Structures are given as structure tokens and as C-alpha cells.
Amino acid sequence: MININSKVFIAGHNGMLGSSIYRILKKKGYKKIITVDKKKLDLRNQIAVKKFIKKNKPDAVIIAAAKVGGIKANIKYPANFISDNLQIQTNLISSSHINNVKKLILFGSSCIYPKHLKKPIKESQIMTGLLEETNESYAVAKIAGIKMIESFNKQYNTNYICLMPCNLFGPNDNYDSQNSHFLPALIKKIYLASKAKKKDKVVKLWGTGKPLREVLYVDEVANACEFFLRKKTKKSLINIGSNVEMSIKNYANLVKKKIDPLVLIKFDNDKNLDGVMRKKLNLTLAKSYGWKSKMNFSKVLDEIIRDFKNSHI
Ligand SMILES: NC(=O)c1ccc[n+]([C@@H]2O[C@H](COP(=O)([O-])OP(=O)(O)OC[C@H]3O[C@@H](n4cnc5c(N)ncnc54)[C@H](OP(=O)(O)O)[C@@H]3O)[C@@H](O)[C@H]2O)c1
């Protein structure tokens, strides 16, 4: 199996999750980490990916590269979300197989489970109902990746897996006002409001604030990734989450308390921007393999707010 002397290719090492995996593998003593910038290798290019994997011969491939975005980006660019993700993962999975890569880890997301499910969501509930319309293209691409992995495992006896994280946050997050996920968006919007004069400290947030979200610090997922890199598992789809689940309104109030309690929070009450109401993951399978989140949410939230102020202002 994979160990610190194995050659590990991290695709997407500049992204939020990829950079965290890179840091964690380095910290754990991995000596042969392979990375390549998007400028030198566009992972949508099948021939170039084939050549790269053949030349570098990794023992393991981690697919942290993807077209990722928040609800508005998903609504506006469905073609990019389906086609980029299908191409990136198909190229990497098939090239890995041809070149005898021992372990491959793909990342799904809790938002690709059907929208009306009994919670907490078990891995076996994938493809058991209608998808959330706002991110259908992204979800279909990711589901195709999961089925591709399962099919390769069945036909070729490979040990490829897909980890399914809940909402993530951490260093190198995307703070773009249109494309970011909800937690970085809250931090940025509340911080900017805090800088206004007392009477103008108002922030308008999308949706009703009622949807519940489970969050996990990205380094926890990177730790899970390293854990499962070394582990042979029977199951190929594994949820990765935490015990922190609150409404968006409560996250907003917590962030406001940490940044500036005088900020007034208002929601635009547009239900179309709520997304799925709840998507709590069932974490029994990961636990049965020996992995569990150790996140101290308040502490990492403080770190992230500090990181945001240092690197984005
Ligand atoms: N963020 C979350 O809350 C969350 C939650 C659950 C699951 N996940 C999963 O975690 C994975 C990583 O997400 P992330 O949040 O780390 O995203 P991210 O920060 O946007 O990172 C994605 C990386 O992929 C690279 N990339 C995109 N298209 C590429 C291409 N054609 N060729 C080469 N590189 C390409 C991007 O490079 P550029 O920036 O240069 O385009 C970026 O470095 C995704 O599979 C996502 O579904 C994320």
C-alpha cells in the first residue's frame, strides 16, 4: 500500500483542498509529492494527462482539481461545471488505470446527494432521488466519477475511492463575492460591513438564512485523505464530515460576534438562493474505518478570520 516513500500526485495542489493536502503530506514526511501548475498541464487535455502520468509514474493520484463554485456560479455556468469536471476526472482515472496507479482518491461533495433524503445521509443513498436543480450539472459529473471508480474497482480490482466531504472552509478559500461558498462569503461581507460607519453597518445576505449546513475545516479532510491513502477499503464511497451543523443565520451571528457585534444582518429572503435545506452526512462508515474529525470549530473560525484579514484586505 501507499506510505511516505510512495510517489503521490496531487492534482489541483493550488486549490483550497489541494494545498491543504500538500501541507499535510509534507508534514507527515511524504518525500515524493508530484505537482504541476494548471498553466503547464490543463487536466481537461486527455493526451497531455496521459503523457504526464506515463512519464511521472505515480503510485497514488489525488484528484483535488475540479471546477468548483457557489450557488450563483453553478446556476450561471452549468456547461463548464459538467464538462470540466467530467474531463478532469475521466482523464485522470483512465490514465491512472493504464499506468497501474495503486490508489486513487476523488472528491465528491455532500451537495451531490439527492435533495429529499432522510438525514443524516448514508453513502447508499446516492442516486436514490432527484438532484438539487441549482447544481445538477456539477452533481451529474461527480456522480459519473463515482460510478467510474466503482466500475474500475469491479472490473479491474483497483482500490480507487471517492471521499464525500460536507462544506469546507480554510486557508486559500475563494472569497469572490459571486463565486464563493457560504462561510467565506459571510466572513467577507460581515468584515466589509464592520468597516462602515456605525449607522451603515448592515449586511444583506442571500436566501432566508434557514438552511442548515455541516462544515469542516479543510485540513481535517486532508488528514482523512492521507488516512485513506494508506488504507485498503471495501467501500469506495465514504462520507467525511463533522458534528458542527447550524443554520446559515446562526453561522452569520457567530461570525458577526467574532468580527463586530454591531453589524446588522438582513436576509434577502430569496428562496431560490437557499439551495438544499439540510444535507447532514452520516459518518458511521468513516468511523468504522477509524477516521473521525477532531475539529474545534470556534478555534479554526478565529484562525480563518485572521487569515482572511491578513491575506485578503
Ligand atoms: N470547497 C468546498 O466546500 C468543498 C466541499 C465538498 C467537496 N469539495 C471538493 O473538493 C475538491 C477541491 O475543491 P476546492 O474547494 O479545493 O476547489 P478550488 O479551491 O477551486 O481548487 C480546485 C483546483 O483545481 C484546479 N483546476 C480547475 N480546473 C483545472 C484544469 N482544467 N486543469 C488543472 N487544474 C484545474 C484549480 O486551478 P485554478 O484555480 O487555476 O482554476 C484549483 O487549483 C473538489 O472536487 C470539490 O468538489 C469542496
Tags for this entry?
11 strands, 313 residues, Rossmann fold, 3-stranded mixed β-sheet, binds NADP nicotinamide-adenine-dinucleotide phosphate
Q: Describe it for me?
A:
This protein is of the alpha/beta class and 313 residues long. Helix 4 packs parallel to helix 5. It has helices at residues 16-27, 46-56, 71-76, 78-98, 136-156, 182-194, 218-229, 248-259, 284-289, 297-312, and strands at 7-11, 32-34, 60-63, 103-107, 159-165, 167-169, 202-205, 212-217, 237-240, 245-247, 264-267. The protein has a six-stranded parallel sheet with strand order 2-1-3-4-5-9, with helices on both faces. The chain has a domain at 7-173 and 215-243 and 279-295: Rossmann fold (3-Layer(aba) Sandwich), CATH 3.40.50. Bound molecules: NADP nicotinamide-adenine-dinucleotide phosphate (NAP).
The ligands found in this model are: NADP nicotinamide-adenine-dinucleotide phosphate
Order of helices and strands: EHEHEHHEHEEHEEHEEHEHH
> Within the CATH hierarchy, at the fold level, what is the topology of the domain at 7-173 and 215-243 and 279-295?
Rossmann fold
Number of helices: 10
Spatial ordering of strands, largest sheet: 2-1-3-4-5-9
Low-confidence stretches: none
What's the total number of strands?
11
The CATH superfamily of the domain at 7-173 and 215-243 and 279-295 is identified as NAD(P)-binding Rossmann-like Domain
Second-tier CATH architecture of the domain at 7-173 and 215-243 and 279-295: 3-Layer(aba) Sandwich
**Rg from C-alpha positions?**
19 Å
Query: How does the major sheet shape up?
Result: 6 strands, parallel
Distance between the termini: 44 Å
Structural class by sheet pairing and helices? alpha/beta
Mean pLDDT: 95
Q: Which range does the strand content fall in?
A: 15-25%
**Helix coverage percent of residues?**
40-55%
Oligomeric state of shown chains: single chain
Text of the CATH class of the domain at 7-173 and 215-243 and 279-295: Alpha Beta
